[in-house]
Write a structure and sequence with these properties.
It comes from Streptomyces boluensis. This is Restriction endonuclease type IV Mrr domain-containing protein. Helices cover 20% and strands 27% of the residues. The protein is an alpha+beta fold and 238 residues long. The protein folds into two domains: 89 residues, no CATH class; 113 residues, Dna-directed Rna Polymerases I, Ii, And Iii 27 Kd Polypeptide, Chain: A, domain 1. It has a six-stranded mixed β-sheet. A three-stranded antiparallel β-sheet has the order 5-9-8, with no helix packed on it. Helix 2 packs parallel to helix 3. The radius of gyration is 18 Å and the shape is globular.
Amino acid sequence: MAESVPVRCPVCRREHLYAAPAYPCACGTPVAPPLVRGAPAVPITHRTWADAWVSARCPSCGRRDQWPQPELGCACGTALRIPVRSVASGPQQSSVPPLHIPLPPTGPAPRPAFHPVTIRTGRDAVTAAALYLKWLGYRDVRQVEQRGGHSVGLHAPGLVARVEPSTRRTTLRHVETLWLSALADSAVPVHFSLAGYTDEARARADTLAVPLFVLDLTGTPQPVNSPADELVTTGGPD
């Protein structure tokens, strides 16, 4: 199991206990990037694809590979990058998308573990969102055409979702447009974003009860507001 280290948010001063997620090496051994204990977490204001990966070496076979940069989202809304010791260049920090620790699914029939797909392209982000919606219980998830912009629409019976795979944060207008579309179809609106949301967008989503998710590079959507937490807990229509 990966070592847990204390992480303090420099904005709100909240304390977190964080352990880097482990991913299987080609030889099958779980590998987690080594965290730098005591190094301060850094708020994320900008990120790029090129800097979203760190090097780690398998302790069993010695293979060196690239893994998603460890990341954490504080409850205050600040996205944090966790310092990692690279096998090549010592302490290393990379910019990554924000995270929010989800509530564990509960209910009479627990869902099986979600199996994500690693996000390296915008198409991967759309695929990850579609898989997650199916995991939540929505059937017949399909992609639909969107007019203008970079976002991609996903529809299912009783659901209207939008995926923003660009490196720009989702704005208030996008949240309101999604809510109106879902209202016209008497459907549940759900939004996925790779780069996160503006403060105005998050506040409006809370008012309209629009679930917001951020996609991390492992392909696991992370809820960033209470409506999203509730959706994870209750699941879709199934």
